Amino acid sequence: MSNDARLGRAPLLLLVPGAVAALLLVVPLLTLVADTPWGQLRDQLTSRAVRDALWLTALASVLTVVLCLLLGTPLAWLLARVDFPGRSLVRAAVIVPLVLPPVVAGVALVTALGRTGFVGRPLDAAFGITIPYTTPAVVIAHTFVSMPFYVLSVEGALRSSGEQYDAVAATLGADRWTTFRRITLPLAIPGVVAGAALAWARSLGEFGATITFAGNYPGTTQTMPSLIYTELQADPLVARTVSMVLLVVCVVVLALLRNRWLTRP
Amino acid sequence: MSGLAVDVTVPGRVTAAAAAEPGDVVAVIGPNGAGKTSLLRAVAGLVGHDGTVTVDGRSWTGLTVRERPVGMAFQDQLLFPHLSALDNVAFGPRSRGTPREEARRTAHDWLDRFGVGHLADRKPRQLSGGQAQRVSIARALATHPRLLLLDEPFAGLDIGVATTLRVELARHLASYDGVTLLVTHDAIDALTLADVVWVLDEGRLVQVGPPREVAARPLTAHVARLVGLNLVEDEGRLLSFSPRAVTVSPAEPAGSARHRWSGTVTSLAPHGDAVRLLVSGDRDLLADVTPEAVAELGLVPGRAVWLSVKETAVRSYDSAPVPAPRHG
Fold this sequence. Notes:
The complex is a heterodimer. By secondary structure, chain A is an all-alpha fold. Chain A has one domain (41-262): MetI-like (MetI-like fold). In chain A, 79% of the residues lie in helices and 0% in strands. Chain B is α+β, with helices and mostly antiparallel strands. Chain B has 9 helices and 18 strands. Chain B has a 6-stranded mixed sheet, with helices on both faces. In chain B, strands 13-17-14-15-16 form a 5-stranded antiparallel sheet. In chain B, strand 9 (196-201) and strand 10 form a beta hairpin. Chain B is elongated. Chain A binds chain B through residues 164-165, 167-175, 178, 182-183, 186-187, and chain B through 44, 46, 64-66, 68, 70-72, 74, 78, 80-82, 91-92, 95-96, 139-140, 143.
């Protein structure tokens, strides 16, 4: 007899809502798997639109992770280690994109980097560079929504790995760059890996900001989620197939991260 | 002048002015919160402070931590967990510009000197407490510091391990020509390793002197307890006496003893071949009695007793101010 059974039956008031919640989460995924046209899978995956979207999604998500590593790591370090004026304000601002509706993120990007935007207009005037509706716009939109996940994860790791080791390194004569490179960063690697995985997963599913800021042009800005959206109106079967591919990718990521987050204490 | 001269204040933590000669080992003792670690961190530059730190005639005021030639062994060692013992020790020399191979050779020499050369490739988590502390001290010394700061190097070690390490450390410190500040909770460290003792109490330096002098004439209750003496203030003078000299009686003693106190037994513990009583009244006093006396007098916690001590067993001295620091 299990321990919880010995304490009595689970009350219906908990059992029923709990079961409904589980069904709500599980049933749509099961029906997606069931409705996927497995027989035509190969044909559809090799179609030009799907191949382009797959490639662009992979490219954008990898570039997003690279940008997070190169720019987000220093930002996380600054937030964790340097007591500059307005630090709490910057931290709050960094977190906003986490809760911002992605469409709003897209609109915000247009106001900054659009052809007539605050940064976009001088960029266009001086160098003839326009960003919206290009592949770089996709990467920028993805980075905008993914960076907060990365920065938060790495900042947490930097804080918990402790400033005390920085103090030790300083007494041994190390400057801050050496300390960062040889002590701080290696100790924060678990947080960097977790943050990169989160950012990558967020980038993979990004839709709202991308379609608003970069549009939905096959070959240059159409990512998998945008393709799903388009095909849902044109050919629902293709939408289901492509959705299935994304589901598989996400489950694989989850499995790879299992050891980090899902192992029970 | 050579050696160390400190005159620092860490606001809200500690104020201390004192000096030490090259080669001196200074034991910094005092109760928790007395400011021992703050003093060390101020000298290393790890916390902001007012005042001056002068080492070998050179002022360290305004120098960052990395510009101060200190070696510091921290509480809990704080070895870099992702680096091997060898790389931990080589980190200092490399950071100060020694080429990689030479730094590793230097590090190996230091590990050998502390008898842990065979553990060079181990990660800190694979080291015992005593081994980790040896690596930590080797790491602090490997940069040839002009000032060695040891923050409770024996804390958390088994008694046997601590004793062995204490003997080894005494040997290394004897050949070290810089000043060592050793924060400790243990009277034995102060008595066996130190040339000078600095006693901190509530953020102030209250006594400076050779260990023998400080142990014989403690000025603070904390040091008295560390060396196992009773300390009583009497008309502006301090009286110290051994618990062995205390007579315990069930009623107020009729004899000539001038020093007498009443109190209640609060605890008993074996102490050598005697039983050490803690008696609480106006003040806490220790008294050593024979096990027979415990039975005879019915000494159990809660029992009211009188304590007395003969004038000849009491050392009486001024609660003198600290001698002025030697400034260069």
